[in-house]
Amino acid sequence: MQGGGLRPRKEADVNIIACVKQVPDTETLIKVKPDGSGIIEDGIKWVMNPYDEFGVEEALRLKEKLGGDVTIVCVGPARAMETIRTALAMGAEKGVQIDDPSLYGADAYATAAALAAVIKGLPHDIIFCGQRAIDGDAGQVGSILAELLGIPSVTLVTKLEIADKKAKAVKAIEGATVTIETSLPCVITAQKGLNEPRYASLPGIMKAKKKPVDVKNAAALGITAEPKAKVAKTIPPPARPPGKIIEGDDPALKAQTLVKLLREEAKVI
Amino acid sequence: MAKGVWIVAELRDGAYRKVSFEIASAARKLADQLGDEVCAVVCGSGVEGKAAELGKYGVDRVYVADNPALEPYTTDAHAAAVAKIVKEKDPAILLLAASVQGKDLSARLVGKLATGLATDCTDLKIDGGKLVAVRPMYAGKCFGEVVTSSFPQMATLRPNVFAIVESAKAGAAEKYDPGLDPAQLKTKVADIQKDVSGKIELTEANIIVSGGRGMKGPENFPILEELAKVLGAAVGASRAAVDAGWRPQVDQVGQTGKTVSPNLYIACGISGAIQHLAGMSSSKFIVAVNKDPEAPIFQRADYGIVDDLFKVVPEVTAAAKKLLA
User: Residue A65: CB partners within 8 Å, gap ≥ 6?
Assistant: First the structure.
């Protein structure tokens, strides 16, 4: 049965998952709580993790090329619904939100276990994650998720081709560019350069409001979030001593003074 | 009872990458505090003779997995090979490089070993017999002290941060069978294109010369490249310069690019947006050249020159050339 404007599924259709996280915008000034228990969240502007945007965009392009649908999966509190809606407005079909207090600030393992619990129950040919989230910067979730699902992973992907049930992915390593081939299903973690994410259109935003999003908690998924790694203390970055402005009118003289200071005072050249 | 400080040493084209000696030295320091030994895992093909070299940096024992399927690196083969020996020997601590390979491998190992991992650490301590791993979060806008409740306690170490310390240990090789099942290996390397430009990798560079919007266009970056050549530096860029298409994405320093910790970071025509400062504030010395005296970069700089970078930078190049000649 089809309805609601959905077209009939074809045998060749690809089941695509894109995992997203809501994070503070890159321009956010991060303030640490005085007791070191975390960061102060007041006044933070929350956005979709930029690397996840590349993942969502690639998922949509793949769907547009091969046919299929895109499901957004997100671990996060109530506010994260906005990020799921953003992905739906970009063009994804449906979403699953995993909202459970035991997962707030969870480590990569617990987050990946929650994502795996949802994705195991969904048809999946290819799963996109951002290569890392720009809050915790761990860069682990995609790889752990792949391991828990027993499928291969390719991280830091900047170019992707899917053909004959295989993925061909390009990534940069130190001093070289590597092309990796892998079977499907697989996890791809998106690096900047993969694509240029689209903006949600106004009709897209209107449609997104009506797209289905399931909200599940840990009990419903039958998981217990037990973080393995804990941030015991959050600390501000070390303060830098005040710097020196090299005064003067002559660029050449100032340049010579700088080079002298770098050699004799800083001892770095 | 989990015991021993372990590292996974990283080889490229048959030679250790420098960061492998950094993590070996860091492991030695931890092991000395714990009264433990340092073991390394080396995976590759034709690598049996590579063990002893690690002894020079404090490694007591080297577990060698020598198998054609381990060269070149693939995630699934290396993860299977390392997980096998780690499960068998049960180390307390496992350190890897926060390199592209080390980050890829370590995260996959977390899944296999069901443990915790602190990524891209800049400091390691022992407190009450447990590892406390210090790492930047939010690209360095704050730091976290990470404690892992399971074993092994894993951490990847940022290249160029931990000092290489020589201490003669045996580096005794012990070969093991990685037990690779070809049916389980689903990824293969189809192609490797080496960068032959001789470019220095940003995350491993001792000195970085970086350009931003003030460079005005891609045609002006050669003046930074000339300075970089004289200093043996890598050339980086701000997001503004990358998004404008002036520089490749791999050159971007900042929260959506690379986080770097060189000895010297020279920011030219970079105003210092929060997301850029986050990526380079852990540099040991920072120089800013910008004609806007109000640019936020000056608040982080050890040395600042308020002037036209197009006049200053070539003079810095000339002065450095003279000094280093």
Answer: none
